[in-house]
Design a protein that fits this description.
Length: about 70
């Protein structure tokens, strides 16, 4: 027989070391940072969509009126 399969010590990766505050249930500042970063990202996406919609609306208006630049 080969190796013993009963000893699974070290299988499955390592656990993150918890700070004292995290052990007591206070959570980490990293979670708050992630939330703030997600909020910033959502705000940026919203602004970009608004700009794209406004730009699409302004470029669509001259084409509807039949200007020569929009016909080519």
């Amino acid at each position: 027989m080969g190796k013993s399969r009963n000893n699974l010590l070290g299988v499955g990766g390592q656990r993150k070391k918890l700070s004292r505050a995290e052990q007591q249930g206070a959570g980490s500042a990293r979670g708050a940072d992630r939330k703030a970063a997600e909020d910033k990202k959502q705000e940026l996406v919203r602004k970009m969509r608004e700009r794209a919609e406004a730009q699409a609306a302004t470029t669509a208006e001259p084409g509807e009126q039949g200007t020569p630049s929009a016909q080519s």
